[in-house]
Amino acid sequence: MELNQAFHNRIAKLCLEHFKALPRRGKPKPSEWTILSCIVMESGGDLSVVALGTGSKCIGKNKLSPKGDILNDSHAEIVCRRSFLRFLYDRLQNADTGCFLKFNALHKKYSIREGTRFHFFTTHMPCGDATIFPKDNVEDVGQIVEREEDYEVPKKLTRTGDVFRTGAKCLLEGDEQDSKAAGSEYHTVGATRTKPGRGDPTLSVSCSDKLSKWCHLGVQGTLLSLLFDKPLYFSTFTIVSKTPFSLEALERALYNRLGMVELEYPYKQHKLIVAQAKYEFEWAKRSDRQPSDCSISWCNVKDKSLEVAVEGKRQGVTKKRLNSVTARLKICKLELFKRFVEVCEQCDVELDKNRDLKTFNYKQVKVLAVHYNHCWDTLRKSFKVWTTKDEKLLHFFLDNKLVL
User: Fold this and answer.
1) Which of the 8 DSSP states describes residue 358?
2) From CA 282, how far away is CA 56, in angstroms rounded?
3) Which residues does the UniProt record annotate as the domain A to I editase (predicted)?
4) Does 211 have pLDDT greater than 50?
5) CA-closest candidate to residue 291, choices 306, 273, 310
6) What pTM was computed for the model?
7) Are 178 and 194 contacting, i.e. CB atoms less than 8 angstroms apart?
8) Which of 8, 63, 96, 152 could make an S-S bridge to 275, C-beta 3.0–4.6 Å?
C-alpha cells in the first residue's frame, strides 16, 4: 500500500478537527498540555475517527485493583486503544450487512471485510525508546529517507550532542540500564521501560513497548484474538508537525531492536507506513505548561461515547463512591470483559464445552487464547524483559467476586 503525504495530512486534519469538536469537558486548560491519539477507520475510501484518547498519566503499583475496575494506564495511546476495543465490541454486538465485519457461523470467527484498514494518529512520539534520539535530528523533521534495513541496533547513540530524554525507566530486572552520563550517553537505546509514577513506581510498560507489541500481535489483544480470524494491525502511523520526531528512532522502537522475530501464522512483524503531517496540535507539550490531570476516552458508539478519567476512575465521582459501578470507566478491564462474554453468548461462541463462560474469571479466559499466548511468549523473549504483575490482579469474575 503506497500513500502520499496528502493522505497523512488528511488523517491529521480529521483527528484534530474531531477533537476540537468534542465538548470542553476534560480538555486541557490554556496552562496545560496533553497528548492526543486517534484510530481512524478507512472503508470504501472513506475515513472516520472511531476511537480517541488523551492523557499522560499512569497510576502506581500500589493503586492497582484486583477487581479490574480501574484504568492502570491513562497515556493517550493506551486510552485510545482501549476505546477502540470498546468500539469493536459494540460493532460485534450490532454487526449487520453494511458493517465492516463478517461472521463465519461455522468457525465462530469474525473477519474484517476487504478494503477496511485502520490508521494510527498521535501528537507526540510514544514514550520510552522511540523518544530517544539526537536533538539535532529535529531540523530533519518530516524527512523520510530510504535506507537499508539494519537489525543490529547500537546500544549507544554515536552523536556527540545531547538527546531527547524519556521519563520511562529501564526495568530493574533487565541487563540494559541507563548510564545517565552526559549528552548522548545518558540513555541506553532499545531497552524495555516502565512509565514514571508520582513517587509510587508503575508496572505499565512504555507506549513504545506497547506499540511494538501491537505491531507483532495486533491491536485486538488476547480476548478478541479468540473472536477474530486474524490479528488487527494498523496500516499507518501519522504524527503532527512541530514536535520532535525521528523515523529511525520510531522504527528502532517498534521493530528493529527486536531483530527478526519469527511468529506463527497469522501473527507476524507488521511494519507501518510512517509520516509527519503538516498540522500542529494546539495543546502540545511546552515548558510553560503543566500536564493535564484528565484523560478523555471517546469512541464511535451510541451509549456514553465520551468519558473523562482522573486517576483511573470517572471524573466527578465522590471519594465515597470510588468503588461503585458509577465510578468505573467503560474501558476498564472488567467492563471490556463483560462485553466479551456478551458477544460470545450472542454469537453462540463456545470456548469451553464443559463450562459456562460466566463461571470463568478474567485470567482463566485469557488462558484459552492458546495460540496468541504462545506467540506472545515467543515475542517476549525478543524484548528480553517485561513487567510481571501479581496474578491475583487478574482473578476477578463478572460479578466482581475475587479469588485470593
Assistant:
1) G
2) 16
3) 51-384
4) yes
5) 310
6) 0.90
7) no
8) 8
Q: What is the 3-state secondary structure (H, E, C) of 290-308?
A: EECCEEEEEECCCCCCEEE
Q: How far is CA 306 from the centre of its chain?
A: 18
**What is the average pLDDT across 143-168?**
47
Q: 233 near 215, Cβ under 8 Å? A: yes
Pairing outcome for strands 290-291 and 32-33? parallel
pLDDT band at 158 (very low <50, low <70, confident <90, very high): very low
* Ranges of H-type helices in 116-243: 207-217, 221-225
**Cα 27 to Cα 294: distance, rounded to the nearest angstrom:** 7
What is the amino acid identity at position 101? Answer: L
59-81 mean pLDDT: 96
Q: Give the DSSP H/E element, type plus range, for residue 56.
A: strand 56-58
Q: Which three cell numbers stand for residue 143?
A: 524527512
> At residue 75, does pLDDT exceed 70?
yes
- Cis link prior to 266 (omega < 30° from 0)? yes
pLDDT at 294 over 60: yes
Residues 371, 377 contacting (CB under 8 angstroms) = no
Q: What is the DSSP string of 159-173?
A: -SS-B---SPEEPTT
* pLDDT attached to residue 153: 47
Backbone angle region of 308, left / alpha / beta, with phi > 0 → left and psi within -120 to 50 → alpha: beta
Helix axes 76-93, 333-346, angle to 10 degrees: 20
| CA atoms in the 13 A half-sphere facing the CB of 251 | 19
Contact of 71 with 331, CB cutoff 8 Å: yes
* Residues contacting 348, CB < 8 A, separation 6+: 108
What is the Cα–Cα distance from 42 to 39, expressed in whole angstroms?
Answer: 10
Question: How large is the average pLDDT for residues 59-76?
Answer: 95
C-alpha cell at 185: 550517553
Rounded Cα distance, 297 and 77, in Å: 11
Question: What is the DSSP track for 86-132?
Answer: HHHHHHHHT--TTSSEEEETTTTEEEEPTTEEEEEEESSPPSSGGG-
Rounded-to-integer distance, Cα 263 and Cα 75, Å: 28
